[in-house]
Structures are given as structure tokens and as C-alpha cells.
Design a protein that fits this description.
The protein contains twelve helices and 40 strands. Helix 4 packs across helix 6. The protein is mostly beta strands. This is Coagulation factor XIII A chain.
């Protein structure tokens, strides 16, 4: 080490931080012990001539370790499980007089006590939980070893050496990139912190490279496929590069709690030059609109090659990329969607919606927002840092929402702890608890400055929490893993526990709600198709023997899916007279021309209806969103669907709108069939059709999926997909 670096670290630490997997220093090929006598040639002792790692896709190492899908010609193994290597020497190995060992090294400043320098001893029997190498075959000049890594080993790319002892010192093989070995987390190993005991779950949450993301709105759930591509060429190296960019110490990279927490910070670019820049303002100059991405591969590879954050992402893109990161490293992971997700700015477990005295929403005072949906991830791991029972699925979120310990990140937070209200346990449990459990509070801000709680809706937030089902593209409801059913005693107890552990609730709403009004109000929005008129029907029901007059207010807004309003495109006030024990319907027509000019990324319309019963001064409030039905892309395939054979993929789109679409980009992706690609069309006139043909040559057999997306200046979130069954190449 140079004098300058000694000075820089002097007095505080002996070596600089070891926080880069890519950085390396070669170990010496010769470590003499004392003076080598004249005439002694160390090369005459046992010498390594070659090393075989059995790293082809069909070799037992990759098949047994479930790493045969990686597009990578290096050896990739999972920790805690034996793998085979063969060492060829210059003469037959004699265990009575020859002594050698295998060494694994990671980073630039390897230390045995940090797990970055691993001398693997030759043992007679492998011991569970420990590094060791057992000789399983000796033949002529070759020795075959069964090498077992520790189930707590650092995850990353190791350099491998073989060291031979002589009476005069150690002879070591020189640096050879061909023997580099990746070691990953192992959900198949009982001693690994990410062990998952169900084979179907391991296949889904570790090995499946295509997923389904649920979005839209709780009464109109929409789906889109996402290519995780965790096995694609270059992705594993990029995931290691992400941790390098975070300057994460190598010694912590065997801990899934630390890896997932660093990942949640690094997938977003806020404050750390991470992978993706978030943008929710509908302006995507100098980048790709979030809805145009079809998967993670393009994003991650662009991040590594440019060494700059990629533009742009929103919650499902962050979740898609984060899922790739976790699965690629071997941590079981899935994307979850929470419908009506609270973004509670002050984590006080209530979403305060302030109303004017006339029932209109006061946008200055209303700071909290309810997202139509929000996607985050769950990662599977033990939590030895928490009491027993809080391992399993952990919520981790890489969408930059709130600051956690000085960085935009969230989790891992135990889902079990969230359900039971134990929000004292790290990390960020109060924020996730609020996302699924907050109350919606309607408060009238009076002109004299006082606030009156008009209504409390305890069931709106966290209405439905879903993920993709195992082994299929359907939806699995996991709401009950996050919360007890509304009204159950356990649900009340969980809330009280959360409050006891410091979740704030400054406004006591117990008993505040006025006696139930004798008038009910609800409304329905008919299925809305982009570019067409739609109808909204409000129903008022009088449950009393009294005669009432009602003043109602409708506000129709174009909203971001985050619940933030962009523009009010219609407002209407009307009076209703209700006879005793009767109901009345009011229909409001929304014309396409009223909303089309201001549409946003996700074509979401939000309706807010408030009504005041003039005789009792009761305020009724209801809000609903609807997501417009958008045209789809059509994908067709011609030719043999066989590995190694050409097939023709056609993507087709017809413009159903009355306006010309300009600057149209169509993206096409299909893991194992084609690399992500895109094509631009300057314009698509009304009712005209465009076609794009590409020749693809699949390299992975089995059920695969082609995914396409389209974005333009005025229309986005257009998707299409096609399931294809790729056959194996016939044996010659």
C-alpha cells in the first residue's frame, strides 16, 4: 500500500473500505518463506496446470444449483450447497507429501475475518454450514473436489486461486478470469436466511422471469405483464454494480436484510444517483415515459453502460426493476399492489380531506393523497434482528416517497409485524402500516378557522392487496396478510398496538362522527371507454319520514394515479328534493371533449360528490375513480416456434381516436425470444392501422410471453401480449 493511503487511513482503520466487487488486487503467485536455497526450483514441486469448473449450462453444477438459466459462461452457484471442480497437476497428487487448498477472494482488500478472503481447507467430510473441500476422485494427475460454501457467505463475484505449500513457501495460481465464480443466495438451502420450503413458490418467486403487475382501480383492475429478465446477459453483473454504486461494504452483502434495504434506496435515483428517475408530472422530455417500458432489462443495462440514472419510472417500474434485482441475486421476491394506498405525509394514520363550507375540496389544506393503487415488493427472509415470528415476507419499496434514515428507501418491514400493529420493529413499519390502515377523515374548514370532523371512512384505504398467483397469471388476494378484517376485535387491537408503539393519531375520531344521517348518497360511474361519452348516476335515499332538500356538488378531475389532481374538467351544483322514504337518481353526462384534451399517463378520472342536507346540516361525501378502457396492441406470430429457428412477430395497432397520434413508439420484449427493441412511427391517423414485423430466434424453450407497449404524445398505457409455447430443438 502506498504511503499516501496509509496516511489517509492512519489512526482510524488499517485498510480502506472494501466496497467494490469490481475492484481487485492480485494475490502474489509466490510467497517465499525465508530464503530459497540456490539450485531449488519451486516449479519442481506440485504445480497446477489447469482448472475445470463444469460451468456449462448442462453441467451438474448449474443444474443442481438452479443457475442454468443465466446467460453467463462463468460458474454460478448458490451458497451452502456443494459444487464440483477439477484441478489438474503436473504430476499425480500424493496426499502424504502434497498440501494444497482452494482460495476465494472478493474485492480489493481481502480479509479472512470479513469473509472477503476465504481459504477453503481440504477435509475428509463436508460439514453443514462451513466452507470445505472434499476430494471425491483422484485419477492420474487430476483431483476432483466437492466444494461447499458457507450458507452465510457474501453474495457476489469471487476470484479463485489454488495455493500449493512447499518447504520454501507458497506457490499460487495466477489470476484467471475464466475461474471467476458467482455465489448467490440459496432459497433451496435450509441454513440460508432466504430459505423457502415450497418448490412451487421457489419456481415462481426466484426462477420465473416474467410477471404480472396489477394496476387500474379496485373496481376495474387492469393487468400488464413485465419481463424481469433476471437471467439475461449482463443483468447479474449489473445487480452487483448497483451495490458497488451504493458503496455497500462487501462484508454486508451476505445479509438479505442489508441487501434489500440498499436495493430499495438504489433502484430510485433520488439522493444517490441510483437506477431510475421518478417522474409523475406527465412531462417526459429526454427520457422514456414510464408506461412504455416492457421490462427491467433495458433499464438496468442502460444504467450500467451510461453510469447515469435512467429516465423515467413510476411505482410499478420501480417495483419491476427491484424484483429483477432481488430474484437475480437469489432472494425470493414478488410485486404487490395495494388499492387505495395512503400516502400519509405525517404518518398519523389518517388521510385528512378538508372541505369548504359549501362542500368543495380545499386543495390548500389537503396535503395527504390517496393513490388509486401503489406497487411495492415483498422479499422472503428470516429476521434474526426481530423477535421470533416476524420472518417471512418483508415489505420493501423503492418508489421514492419518504425519507428513511436520511435516504429515500423503505423496508424491509415485516408484513406479520404490520398486521399485528408492531410498528416499533425496523424498518419503516409505521409508513407501510399507514399505507394500508389509515382512516379517511372528511373535515370542514370553517371560515372562523375551526375544523369540524364530518365523516370518517375506516374501510376505504387498503381496500384490496394483491399479487400474481403461483404458477399462473391470475390474481391472488393477500389483503389478510397485512390486516385483519374490518370490524374484527383483532383489527381494533392491532390499531391500538400501533398507536401504543408511537404511530400518531392526533385527531381523536372516536365518537366524533355525528349520528348517522337519515339520508344516504352513493354514485356509480359507467364503464368508460377512451374517447367516448360516459354517464355518472348519483342516488339519494331518504330513510326517514321527513321531507328533505339537498344541495349537491360534483367535481370531476383528471388525476394522476397518485391521487393528485391535475385539472378539474367539470363542476356542477344541483338541488334535490327528497320525499319521505323515497330515493331519487340524478344523471350527469360527461362528454369526451371535456376530458380528452387534458388526459394524463394513466387516463384516470376522479369524481368527488359532496352533498349537504339543508334541514339537518349533515354533510355526505363520496369519491370514486374510473380508469378509461384503452385500445390494445395485437401481437401475432408466424413460423416454427422452436429454439434456434426463425419466427416472424407482428405488432399491430389501430388508432380508434378522432385525432392523429404523433411520435408513436412501440416497444417489444420477450425473455428468451427476443432482446428488448423499439420502433418509431411519426404519426398514426384516425382509424388507420400500423404494423411492425421482426424476425426473432428463440433461445429458451417452454411457455414464454411476448410483451408490447405503445406510447405517443397524447396516448399512453397501450399494451398487448401473447403467450407462446417454444419447443425444444429436435435431436439430430
Amino acid at each position: 500500500m502506498s504511503e499516501t493511503s496509509r496516511v489517509a487511513f492512519g489512526g482510524r482503520r488499517a485498510v480502506p473500505p472494501n466496497n467494490s466487487n469490481a475492484a481487485e488486487d492480485d494475490l502474489p503467485t509466490l510467497e517465499p518463506q525465508g530464503v530459497v536455497p540456490r539450485g531449488v526450483n519451486l516449479q519442481e514441486f506440485l504445480n497446477v496446470t489447469s482448472i475445470h469448473l463444469f460451468k456449462e449450462r448442462w453441467d451438474t453444477n448449474k443444474v443442481d444449483h438452479h443457475t442454468d438459466k443465466y446467460e453467463n459462461n462463468k460458474l454460478i452457484v448458490r451458497r451452502g450447497q456443494p459444487f464440483y471442480i477439477q484441478i489438474d497437476f503436473n504430476r499425480p497428487y500424493d496426499p502424504r507429501r502434497d498440501l494444497f487448498r482452494v482460495e476465494y477472494v472478493i474485492g480489493r482488500y481481502p480479509q479472512e475475518n470479513k469473509g472477503t478472503y476465504i481459504p477453503v481447507p481440504i477435509v475428509s467430510e463436508l460439514q453443514s454450514g462451513k466452507w470445505g473441500a472434499k476430494i471425491v476422485m483422484r485419477e492420474d494427475r487430476s483431483v476432483r473436489l466437492s466444494v461447499q460454501s458457507s450458507p452465510e457467505c457474501i453474495v457476489g463475484k469471487f476470484r479463485m486461486y489454488v495455493a500449493v505449500w512447499t518447504p520454501y513457501g507458497i506457490i499460487r495460481t495466477s489470476r484467471n478470469p475464466e475461474t471467476d465464480t458467482y455465489i448467490l443466495f440459496n432459497p433451496w438451502c435450509e441454513d440460508d436466511a432466504v430459505y423457502l420450503d415450497n418448490e412451487k413458490e421457489r419456481e415462481e418467486y426466484v426462477l420465473n422471469d416474467i410477471g404480472v403487475i396489477f394496476y387500474g382501480e379496485v373496481n376495474d383492475i387492469k393487468t400488464r405483464s413485465w419481463s424481469y429478465g433476471q437471467f439475461e446477459d449482463g443483468i447479474l453483473d449489473t445487480c452487483l454494480y448497483v451495490m458497488d454504486r451504493a458503496q455497500m461494504d462487501l462484508s454486508g452483502r451476505g445479509n438479505p436484510i442489508k441487501v434489500s434495504r440498499v436495493g430499495s434506496a438504489m433502484v430510485n435515483a433520488k439522493d444517490d444517483e441510483g437506477v431510475l428517475v421518478g417522474s409523475w408530472d406527465n412531462i417526459y422530455a429526454y427520457g422514456v415515459p414510464p408506461s412504455a417500458w416492457t421490462g427491467s432489462v433495458d433499464i438496468l443495462l442502460e444504467y450500467q453502460s451510461s453510469e447515469n440514472p435512467v429516465r423515467y419510472g413510476q411505482c410499478w417500474v420501480f417495483a419491476g426493476v427491484f424484483n429483477t434485482f432481488l430474484r437475480c441475486l437469489g432472494i425470493p421476491a414478488r410485486i404487490v399492489t395495494n388499492y387505495f394506498s395512503a400516502h400519509d405525509n405525517d404518518a398519523n394514520l389518517q388521510m385528512d380531506i378538508f372541505l369548504e363550507e359549501d362542500g368543495n375540496v380545499n386543495s390548500k389544506l389537503t396535503k395527504d393523497s390517496v393513490w388509486n393503487y401503489h406497487c411495492w415488493n415483498e422479499a422472503w427472509m428470516t429476521r434474526p434482528d426481530l423477535p421470533v415470528g416476524f420472518g417471512g415476507w418483508q415489505a420493501v419499496d423503492s418508489t421514492p416517497q419518504e425519507n428513511s434514515d436520511g435516504m429515500y428507501r423503505c423496508g424491509p418491514a415485516s408484513v406479520q409485524a404490520i398486521k399485528h400493529g408492531h410498528v416499533c420493529f425496523q424498518f419503516d413499519a409505521p409508513f407501510v402500516f399507514a399505507e394500508v390502515n389509515s382512516d379517511l377523515i372528511y373535515i370542514t374548514a370553517k371560515k372562523d378557522g375551526t375544523h369540524v370532523v364530518e365523516n370518517v371512512d375506516a374501510t376505504h384505504i387498503g381496500k384490496l392487496i394483491v399479487t400474481k398467483q403461483i404458477g399462473g397469471d391470475g390474481m391472488m388476494d393477500i389483503t389478510d396478510t397485512y390486516k385483519f378484517q374490518e370490524g374484527q376485535e383483532e383489527e381494533r387491537l392491532a390499531l391500538e398496538t400501533a398507536l401504543m408503539y408511537g404511530a400518531k393519531k392526533p385527531l381523536s375520531t372516536e365518537g366524533v362522527v355525528k349520528s348517522r344521517s337519515k339520508v344516504d348518497m352513493d354514485f356509480e360511474v359507467e364503464n368508460a371507454v377512451l374517447g367516448k361519452d360516459l354517464k355518472l348516476t348519483i342516488t339519494f335515499r331518504n330513510n326517514s319520514h321527513n321531507h328533505y332538500t339537498i344541495t349537491a356538488y360534483l367535481s370531476a378531475n383528471i388525476t394522476f394515479y397518485t391521487g393528485v389532481s391535475k385539472a378539474e374538467f367539470k363542476k356542477e351544483t344541483f338541488d334535490v328534493t327528497l320525499e319521505p322514504l323515497s330515493f331519487k337518481k340524478e344523471a350527469v353526462l360527461i362528454q369526451a371533449g371535456e376530458y380528452m384534451g387534458q388526459l394524463l399517463e394513466q387516463a384516470s378520472l376522479h369524481f368527488f360528490v359532496t352533498a349537504r342536507v339543508n334541514e339537518t346540516r349533515d354533510v355526505l361525501a363520496k369519491q370514486k375513480s374510473t380508469v378509461l378502457t384503452i385500445p390494445e396492441l395485437i401481437i401475432k406470430v408466424r413460423g416454427a416456434q422452436v429454439v434456434g429457428s426463425d419466427m416472424i412477430v407482428t405488432v399491430e395497432f389501430t388508432n380508434p381516436l378522432k385525432e392523429t397520434l404523433r411520435n408513436v413508439w412501440i416497444h417489444l420484449d420477450g425473455p428468451g425470444i427476443t432482446r428488448p427493441m423499439r420502433k418509431m412511427f411519426r404519426e398514426i391517423r384516425p382509424n388507420s392501422t400500423v404494423q411492425w414485423e421482426e424476425v426473432c430466434r428463440p433461445w429458451v424453450s417452454g411457455p414464454r410471453k411476448l410483451i408490447a407497449s405503445m406510447s405517443s404524445d397524447s396516448l399512453r398505457h397501450v399494451y398487448g401480449e401473447l403467450d407462446v409455447q417454444i419447443q425444444r430443438r429436435p435431436a439430430m
